[in-house]
Amino acid sequence: MAVKLQREDPPFFPGIERNKISEIGKFQEIKLQKQLEYLRANSKFYSDHFRKHKIDISRVKTLGDLEIIPPTTKEDLQERNDDFICVPKEKIIDYITTSGTAGDPVTFAMTDADLERLAYNEAISFTCADGSPADIYQLMTTIDRRFMAGLAYFMGIRRMGAGVVRVGNGIPEFQWDTIRRINPTAIVAVPSFILKIVEYAEAHRIDYRNSSIRKAVCIGEPLRNTDFTLNTLGRRITEKWPIKLFSTYASTEMGTSFTECGEGLGGHHHPELIIVEFLDNENRNVKEGECGEVTITTLGVEGMPLLRFKTGDVCYHYTEPCKCGRTSMRLGPVIGRKNQMIKYKGTTLYPPSLYDILDNIEYISNYVVEVFTSEIGTDEILIHVGSRKSVSDREKDIKDHFRAKLRVAPLIRFDTAENIHRIQAPEASRKIVKFIDNRDKSKNN
Question: 352 preceded by cis ω (within 30°)?
Answer without folding.
Answer: no
